[in-house]
Amino acid sequence: MKNSLAASALLALLVAGSGVHAAERVKVRGARENASGGVTAVSAGAVRGPNGAAASAHAITTNGAGSATVVNGSAARASNGASYGRAGTTTVNADGSASHKSGFVAHGANGSSAQSSGSFTRNADGSYGGQRSTAVTGANGSYSGSTQYANGSGTHTSDIAAKNGDTYTGTTSWTKGQGVTHSGTCKDAAGNVIACP
After folding, report:
1. What pLDDT, on the 0 to 100 scale, is given for residue 10?
2. Domain identity same for 156 and 92
3. Which one of 84, 136, 159, 183 has the fewest CB atoms closer than 10 angstroms to its CB?
4. pLDDT along the chain (197 residues), means of 10
5. How high is the pLDDT of residue 23?
6. Are 23 and 34 in contact (CB under 8 A)?
7. In degrees rounded to 5, what are phi and psi of residue 120?
């Protein structure tokens, strides 16, 4: 854990650094036994220069019960102010169950942004479920979407707003063996229902 904390701190400093004129690179890695009867291994790297900085890290931890957890992440920042970051965690257990969480966020130099986060769970009996939410904004409008699913069924909803005020709201649902249904509504800036493109 100390190794991973040290690596994370180093990467944060590198990404946040400014005023760098010559490219710089660093890589770190290490492994050791942990208190859970397993091994923790960490690797990380970063680079920065006149055009920006980027960093990534990867860690895996096992325990005596046969479980393993993988954590990874990356981040970048350009000299024009654009930035990106992503992180994810996956755990697999000896009984066949597993879980995953991940997300990202990005900001453009022009003020646009995008972000998404989601999770997935598989139980030992094979049942599963998950969800993901995404949002994007920019000069031409915005989008937000959400998906939820479990054991062969799911629902996705979308909301879109154009820069002229027109909007779209839609829902799609599916069930294995039964098919897919969809509904959607478009409105103008005054709230009147209009034909969808």
Report:
1. 45
2. no
3. 183
4. 42 44 79 96 94 95 96 96 96 97 97 98 98 98 98 98 97 97 97 95
5. 65
6. no
7. -145, 140
The answer for residues whose C-beta is within 8 angstroms of residue 98's C-beta and 6 or more apart is 90, 91, 92, 120, 121, 122
For residues 181 and 22, what is the distance between their CA atoms, to the nearest angstrom?
A: 56
Alpha carbon distance 89, 109 (integer Å)? 28
CA distance 80 to 108: 9
Q: How far apart are CA 131 and CA 122, in angstroms?
A: 12
Rounded to whole angstroms, how far apart are CA atoms 157 and 32?
45
Provide the token pair at 102: 């991940």
CA distance 67 to 191: 53
Given the structure tokens 């972000």, which residue do they identify?
115
> Do residues 10 and 40 share a domain?
yes
Are both 29 and 103 inside the same structural domain? Answer: yes
Burial class of residue 169 (count of CB atoms within 10 Å of its CB; 0-12, 13-18, 19+)? middle
- Please give the backbone phi and psi of residue 178, each rounded to the nearest 5 degrees, phi first: -120, -15
The CA-atom distances, in angstroms, between 195 and each of 83, 191, 192 are 37, 13, 10
> Around 127, how many Cα atoms within 13 Å sit in the side-chain half-sphere?
2
